[in-house]
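re the bet — no i am not wrong, look at it urself. input seq straight from the record:
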Amino acid sequence: MRSLLLGWGNSTPRQLAAYERLHRRVGLSPVTVIGSTLRGLVSQRLFARSVAPALDALEGNTCMVHLFSDNGFLAWAALLAAGADVRGVRAVLLDSSPGLWAARDASEVARRFSLGMMPVAARVLRIEPRPYVPAVTPALYGAFLAYQRLRPGWASAMRGAADVVLDRGPRCPHVFAFGGRDELVPAVNVRAFAARMGALAEVREHCFDDAGHVLLFPSDPKRYTRVVEETARRADADA
């Protein structure tokens, strides 16, 4: 059975290679697509183009979707909005997602984006990756706050992704895995969305109490492997 991995913002193929190996170990054939966060800042249309290769992975195939963080969630929403063929999707596994849909205002969106962009900022500046760096994180926060004033519809489109997923997504089992120490996508946001999804489809939750954002696999490899394996087994049973 095929699997579709939708990467987190500014992730690299090398970072997702460990997840591809995991998928192969449990009998899946993975295809990885990483939506371009930078293109998404320019326009939603360009972001949708960056994830368009995933349409072929879904077309006519029995498949499990494994998405990461809000970037993966936005990619999933973009695919659904583009009319992706999801008749073969048998399970959706959400890792550290979604969170932006619950951001209350422009300040909260800017805070989350500034934290989310810190890994790529650290790579560019060649500094140690940390959730908060004096001067750098506040500068990113101010930039994203100003950006929303210039493009007020941008944040609304991000929050609206949740409605797209609920309205157009498959009614197969959804598995939510999240970290108890995730500051970027708090557990309360994931659980609130899972409750909404639970009115439409079977839902399971797995909280990794000591894990931060998209750090579930490194925090407890054996447990994470079991979650992926169980999700894949359920998807295969429904194929």
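see?? The domain at 2-102+160-237 is CATH 3.40.50.1820 (Rossmann fold). told u. also The mean pLDDT is 92. so pay up
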